[in-house]
Design goal:
Chain lengths: 360, 80
Amino acid sequence: MKKEKTTIVAAGILIGVISAMLVFFGNPANMGFCIACFLRDTTGALGLHSAAAVQYIRPEIIGLVLGACIVSLITKEFRPRGGSAPITRFTLGAFAMIGCLMFLGCPFRMILRLAGGDGNAIFGLVGFVCGILTGTFFLKKGYTLKRSYKMPKLEGAVYPAFQIVMLILLVAAPAFIHFTEPEGGPGAKHAAILISLAAGVIVGIVAQRTRLCMVGGIRDAVLFGEYKLLFGFVAILISALVMNLILGAVTGTAFFNPGFAGQPIAHTDGLWNALGMYLAGFACILLGGCPMRQLILSGEGNTDSVVAVLGLMAGAAFSHNFGLASSADGPTANGKIAVVIGIVVVAVIAVVNSTRKAEA
Amino acid sequence: MMTYIATFYSHYGAIQFRKNCEKMNLKAVVMPVPRNLSSSCGTCVQFEANGIFPDSTEETEQIVRVEERGYVSIYQADEE
């Protein structure tokens, strides 16, 4: 048990260091990793939304899935499964993304924003914890999306194979793939492909071995008084913060800028930062894990998680096609309406799927 | 008394199983699945029994007996 805790903390430290270094190598500030932003960029690169500033096939996503896939094949943990409420999972994924893009980041980036001194992420964290507590309430009431079933090997292999296709498209860059023009926005800021890919693979392997999950840490602490995963969460925060301070001292460029106004790819509306992450936390706990965990499980052959990831991508497309995503100027009216609708829909999903409590 | 761990397809299955254990006066605790038992991040029930414990349900994935040298499989759900 103690060894497992040490491993998780070491994994968190490694992931924090890698995340900070990715910014040094070219990723947007406080965005060494952001599963929501990177899935959104990839969605845009495929032409599924037309926000020209955020279009790029992010190699980190490819690496995360392939890293988890390779290590699970080696450890014989690649077990294709699926069939547990796919449409509900798709819907939860879509609304989780809408919540993330209200805040401008997934739970992973929320930690990295905190490590970069972005005080607005404190509001996000408060909302995120409240969302998880709400979801945990329904878990205790018997919430379930019913069991998954064994699937053919091919079914589990499709999504990892899709990542290889994405890598080919990234390198070949055919004309039908959309990439943000240089200086055209966050999509144009990225580390070199090999660096990003290697970072993704390493984090994918580490996350598969340790089951690191931004949602699971708080859930396990609340449900079982088990803090192992939460220590991983804290280790990422501390190591990214220390790395930001070191990088600032070495390069002369501030990687840690404490404050609220003028933070990179962030806005200062505390209420909607909190509500966006409330929706993300609530939806993710009903899915069983944060967006990064969904990618890792997808790499292990879990097609329920693939459906959740497809939902996240659809949510990204909706967000940019319908003007739901926030910007540095703040949230949009459409985005506020979508987040409120999302909270209602996720609550309905939670209530309806908790009705078997009387049988327990 | 021997120690067993049961894993489930859902958190709900674990809660239900623990209640069934308690009905049989078996000491049972709900906790995260140990990493060396599964890569899933679900919920399991660790319980003490003398070979007699609640029947598995459609939510039960597997039941193992905990021994010093590792886990001994007692029940594995038909996956097909």
